[in-house]
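tl;dr need the bound structure. longer version: we got a ligand (beta-D-glucopyranose) that a collaborator sent over and nobodys looked at where it sits. i said id run it. heres the input, straight from their email, havent touched it
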Amino acid sequence: MALSIEYATALEHQVREVLAQMTLEEKIGQLSLVNGARGDIPDRLREAIIEGRVGAVLNEVDVDTINELQRIAVEESRLGIPLMIGRDVIHGFKTIFPIPLGQAASWNPEVIRTCARIAALEAASTGVNWAYAPMIDIGRDPRWGRIAETLGEDPYLTGVLGAAMVRGFQGDDLAKPGSIAACAKHFAGYGASEGGRDYNTTNITENELRNVHLPPFKEALDAGVATFMVSLSDLDGIPASANAFLLRQILRHEWHYDGFVVSDWESIPQLSVHGLTANDREAAYEAANAGLDMEMVSSTYAEHLGTFVQDGRITLDQIDTMAANVLRAKFRLGLFEHPFTNPADFPAIANPEHLEAARYAALQSAVLLKNDRHTLPLFKDELRSLAVIGPLADDPYEQLGTWIFDGDLQYSQTPLQAIRQSVGDSVAVRFARALETTRSRDHDAFSEAIEAAQQSDVVVLFLGEESILSGEAHCRADIGLPGNQEALIEAIAALGKPVVLVLMAGRPLALEPVLDNVDAILFTWHPGTMAGPAIADLLFGKQVPSGKLPITFPRAAGQIPIYYAHKNTGRPPTPEKVIAIDDIEQRARQFAVGNASFYLDAGDAPLFPFGYGLSYSAFHYANIETSAPEIALGETIAISAELTNVGDYEAEEVAQLYIRDLVGNVTRPVKELKGFQKVRLKPGESTTVTFHLHTDDLAFYNRSMQRVTEPGTFHVWIGGSSEADLRSEFRIVDPEIES
Ligand code: BGC
């Protein structure tokens, strides 16, 4: 969001004018984010607002309450400064869209922007003006429950999609009604929590931090994100809430960020739990000194910052800077002019347009992982009967996923409902739940399910993970199908009917044990309110799957971390070197079976790679070309390939561009995504997909932590997944050296 110099100067003037009138206590008050009482306004909150001791409130969603809170702030406090009203609006407000990891599988920035736009409108209609999204932590560990909230494993994809989400929440002008402040979180490194266990320690080298974890945050900043939230985690011994390297060096000095940074829930007092500080007082000092502006829920700033100023440990200038960062955001939001909300100014909640966007997002997010013998789509006219089996077939809650505080079940349309509606009376639909929950370990209801399957032409299983198995603090050590689901699949498979497995889950699942027992797998994440219509359209071929994995699916949890953009190592695995545990001869000598980087019992390859996803149609890539064999630093190269729909359906394909920088001052990944395009083609139709890369797009942080593009040879691939093999190459030269 480019702001004119005049606007910035006028804004600064307004901020300074308010600041000049504020007492120290009022300045510190702006740094306090208080948890709401959900509807009631207790006297102590009322008094605190009147006395200017509150800058923001979270978790209120009743419009009358919020308007009353704003009224107290604007009319009864001395300076009339309005409040930020925050809420975890993560993948929808009342209308729920697919979980963020699912939205990322759409590889469609416009879908993500639209979902955030609608979420913003619905939230803003209640007075919420601040969403705690996007979460743009790089997620490379499917055990981590919060993987569901990420946009996947890749810095480039996360950057592009995170920026689209920021644009959706904030619109083209933050001050317009319906625009709400976004929050880039969690700064930084949370996704690297050891072992995929939430809140766990992270140890990330500065080089990896800069090359992998920080780029999406810089993208969000460039998209104009109004606020940042720190991570709850400990980064190399310094928890993010006290990490001056992150908050001062990177965010302020290098990136020139001038919005505010909020703590995470009680993350300042938790500095003492981490063992960084001895008590709340020192925790407040460390956080403020590191550059953390606003405190969420706890009150260490309110209690101690004033005394630090009196003691001279913190300067008034520092407090002014912190308060100014908050005020700037409030001015940008236009809150001083429009503090109140009239729901009538907004489109109705969950109106047909919102539901249609939710259906489309669910459609675009579904990834077809397997489709043997063209099992899908199902042809209604040829079917007489269909068994719909599983605990997730008809559960309006579980299809919504994690973080749906305001999600409204009354709008949910389930797959069973939609299938029944879609086939009408012509197909007998037999439903059996089979398992009470996805975690159930019994098989009491298997016989009913088996009977339904036996009487039907085709079986569609709705399995996976219920909502509570992912999200914050909900990690799993085993990422297979929970409970007795594998046994259910085996029992159904034994009948010899065509079996379609529709999965809902908040993370990649280890599916190897069931892969051979089903004919088709459609992975739908937690698809949201309109799961049913989207899935029915895909099953019956009204729509064609076009999602691609934004994260690698391992064979087994023991392969984690496994991601496509890994380094080569000095001993990379090759097909000749990878040997399976069963093929090793008895009394084999050490190294007789090779010495490469792989697992004897899981090889080196994932089950499904990043970028992978099938279609009912088929696509062929050919004739990769570069616009020149070499370019100079500062120039742009075009890379193109011919893409043809060689199947029978009009369908969309995500064409992906990968590069490899062969030699670097620090080692570079074996492949890096650098571009993608979602293209729709009719059967037999061809198009040329062209990507433009400026040499800056190939920059990385070297061993001196400078961002550089190094001259040399680059491999480049265009294809339908990270395993694309259509390759070309080009060179970058430094004209000053080589000419
Ligand atoms: C989470 C944040 C969230 C906040 C407010 C924390 O526990 O880590 O992502 O925005 O709570 O609910």
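gonna send this back to them w/ a short note. The first strand starts at residue 32 and ends at 35.
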